Each structure stands twice: as structure tokens, then as C-alpha cells.
């Protein structure tokens, strides 16, 4: 019998990407819930076997501008209270942190581009070990304080908090291992054109880095997620 994965998507081109295949291989029935759907963050948050919260170009703290954020945090918090399997990427990781009472705030800089992570001792024995020596895509301007009972798994040269876990069932990734860096990467560049321009990002250089690092990070991302999903099977 297939397991169910509910995927909260905030912007259409930021999808599961490289994570889609390992989810299928693990026999998950995948359903996207988009931010403009009438039933976004409605229903029982405990029902899906797995909840995945994807990224987006808004801040967790911008409730007045984006009222859906309060309902989304409440949806996530209800699930986390029962330690139901939950994965967050970028904004998704920040929403998990906020739902657990951590502070999410601007870093004062834009970390956009490819670079390697520095894994903590906990990270070296986690599914993130598959990313060792691999440059991953960073694309954010916010960070978070480490939630209570969470383990910090990785840092970058610019931002200390890049990933965290709580037991086997909760994983937050500040970076974007899932992002497809083939011709589909152009959707990211067009969709985030204003942000890239304001940050003074060299688009030609970013394209070159995507071509250079795309295949290694895609392989590593698949291994990371497959490893984490396997760990869910044996969680307490």
C-alpha cells in the first residue's frame, strides 16, 4: 500500500525536483497543495505519512502581507507536536523552526550561489553525509535560531545554521539540494529576476556553476533523501 506525501508549494517552479524520484522509489503517493488552492493547509495535518514544505521568496514573519503564513505555521506545529515525519526546504525549514518557537530573521545579506557545506559531527553521521565535498545551491536572505531539541547538522561560510534535525522524523534544510540545474534552472533565474538584480548576482556565473555542480548535487540529493526516508521506517 502506497504511503502519502503532502507537499506544500509556495511558488510553482520550486517543486520537488531531484527529490521526486526517491519519493517514488519509496512508494509515496505524492500530492501537491499549492498556496493558491482553496484547501491549502486545511484538513488534518496528521493524515499524510509525510509532509514536505518547499521554498518561496517570502519571510516567515510577513503575516500581514501574506496571511496564509499563520495558518501554515499552525498546520505544521500541530504535526510537529506529534513528531510526524516532516521535511522543510529553505522557507519550509524556516517555517518548521518558527512553528517550534525559534526566531526567524533576516541575515542582512543574500546567500545565493553554489558552495560546499561544513558538516557538524552530527551532520557527518546524518543523511547529509552524502553532500560532503559537494557544492549545493544556497538561495536565501533569512536564517533561524536552532529550535529546542534540534541538532545543527551543517553550516556554510556565511551562515551558521544550514540544516537541523529532531530525532529521525524532522529535517530542515536551509539550502536547495532539490533544485534542478538543467534547462529548468532558467525558471529560477526568471522567477527571481528582481531579487537577483537587487543582490547584484552574476547570472552568467550562476548558470556556469549550475552546469558544473548540477549532476553531483543531484546524485547526492537523491541519496540524502533516500537515506532519510529509510530512517523513517525504523524511527521510534
Helical stretch tally: 7
Q: List unreliable stretches of 5+ residues.
A: none
Q: Mean pLDDT across all residues, rounded? A: 96
Helix/strand class: alpha/beta
Tell me how many strands there are. 10
Number of structurally distinct domains: 1
N-to-C SSE series? EHEEHEHEEHEEEEHHH
Describe, in plain words, how this protein is organized in 3D:
The protein is built from seven helices and ten strands. It has 236 residues and is of the alpha/beta class. The chain has a single domain, classed as 3-Layer(aba) Sandwich (Rossmann fold). The strands form two sheets. It has an eight-stranded mixed β-sheet. A two-stranded antiparallel sheet has the order 5-7. A hairpin with a 3-residue loop joins strand 9 and strand 10. The mean pLDDT is 96.
Salient structural properties:
two-stranded antiparallel sheet, eight-stranded mixed beta sheet, 236 residues, 7 helices, globular, alpha/beta, Rossmann fold
How are the secondary structure elements laid out?
Blueprint: E1 3-9, H1 20-25, E2 28-34, E3 50-53, H2 68-80, E4 86-89, H3 91-99, E5 104-116, E6 118-119, H4 121-124, E7 135-144, E8 151-155, E9 163-166, E10 170-173, H5 185-191, H6 193-199, H7 203-233
Parallel strand pairs: 1-2, 1-3, 3-4, 4-10
Antiparallel strand pairs: 5-7, 6-8, 8-9, 9-10
Amino acid at each position: 500500500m502506497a504511503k502519502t506525501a503532502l507537499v506544500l508549494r509556495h511558488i510553482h517552479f520550486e517543486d520537488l525536483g531531484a527529490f521526486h524520484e526517491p519519493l517514488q522509489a519509496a512508494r509515496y503517493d505524492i500530492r501537491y497543495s499549492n498556496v493558491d488552492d482553496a484547501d491549502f493547509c486545511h484538513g488534518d495535518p496528521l493524515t499524510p505519512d509525510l509532509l514536505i514544505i518547499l521554498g518561496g521568496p517570502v519571510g516567515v514573519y510577513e503575516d500581514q502581507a501574506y496571511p496564509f503564513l499563520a495558518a501554515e505555521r499552525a498546520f505544521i506545529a500541530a504535526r510537529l507536536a506529534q513528531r510526524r515525519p516532516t521535511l522543510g526546504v529553505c522557507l519550509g525549514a524556516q517555517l518548521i523552526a518558527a512553528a517550534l518557537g525559534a526566531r526567524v530573521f533576516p541575515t542582512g545579506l543574500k546567500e545565493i550561489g553554489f558552495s560546499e557545506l561544513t558538516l557538524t559531527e552530527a551532520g557527518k553521521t546524518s543523511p547529509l553525509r552524502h553532500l560532503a565535498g559537494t557544492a549545493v545551491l544556497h538561495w536565501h536572505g533569512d536564517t533561524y535560531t536552532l529550535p529546542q531539541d534540534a541538532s545543527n547538522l551543517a553550516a556554510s561560510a556565511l551562515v551558521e545554521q544550514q540544516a537541523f534535525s529532531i530525532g529521525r522524523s524532522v529535517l530542515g534544510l536551509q539550502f536547495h539540494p532539490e533544485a534542478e540545474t538543467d534547462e529548468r534552472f532558467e525558471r529560477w533565474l526568471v522567477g527571481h529576476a528582481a531579487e537577483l538584480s537587487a543582490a547584484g548576482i552574476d547570472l552568467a556565473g550562476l548558470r556556469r556553476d549550475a552546469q558544473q555542480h548540477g549532476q553531483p548535487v543531484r546524485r547526492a540529493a537523491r541519496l540524502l533523501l533516500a537515506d532519510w526516508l529509510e530512517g523513517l521506517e525504523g524511527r521510534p
